[in-house]
Amino acid sequence: MSSASTEKHRAIAAGLGAIPVAIITVSDTRTRENDTGGDLIEQRVTSAGHTVVFRTIVKDEPDQIGALLDRVIDETEARLVLFTGGTGIAPRDTTYDVIARKLEKTMPGFGELFRMLSFNEVGAAAMLSRAVAGVYRGRVVVSMPGSPNAVQVAMDKLILPEIQHLAWEVAR
Description:
This protein has about 170 residues and is α/β, with parallel strands linked by helices. The chain has a single domain (about 5-170), classed as Molybdenum Cofactor Biosythetic Enzyme, Chain A (3-Layer(aba) Sandwich). It has helices spanning about 5-15, 35-45, 60-75, 95-100, 110-120, 150-170; strands at about 20-25, 50-60, 80-85, 105, 130-135, 140-145. It has a 6-stranded mixed beta sheet with strand order 2-1-3-6-5-4, sandwiched between helices. β5 (about 130-135) and β6 (about 140-145) form a beta hairpin. α2 (about 35-45) packs across α6 (about 150-170) and α5 (about 110-120) runs antiparallel to α6. The radius of gyration is 15 Å and the shape is globular.
C-alpha cells in the first residue's frame, strides 16, 4: 500500500547504511541487569544492522530526562533517540510530558498507530499509553512504554520498518 514517492524515499534512505541510535530507559527501579525493555531495543537495533551509540537509565525526574535528551543530542551522533518507560498515567510517569514539550514537530501517527496495535494485544488498556514521537533539534525522538511487549510492538511494527526513512527525512 506504499505510494511511489514513499518507496522512492525508502530507496534513497536505504543508502544511509547503519543508523546510530541512542537508548534511554526511564525508570526509578530498573538497573542495567534487569532493563529488559532496553535490552530488547538494543537487540532489535543491532540485529537490524544499526548501531547503538549511547545507552543509559535515568530516573523518572523531568529535569533529568530533559537534560539527558539535550546531552545525547549535543554529544552523540544518534539520529534516533529511543526512550522506553514513563509513558503511563501514574503520578511518576513524566517521560511523555518532558518529550512532548521539547518536540518541534510531532508525529501523531506514531502514538495513534502504537495504541491501535496495542489494542490488539491488551484491549482497552492501550488507551493508558502516552507513546509519542517527533523531531527535536534534527533528531527523531520516540517515547514508548517500558513493557517488553510494548517495546516489541513499537520496534517491530513501527520503528524498524521505517528507521532509515525516518533518519533520512530529518537530515535531508
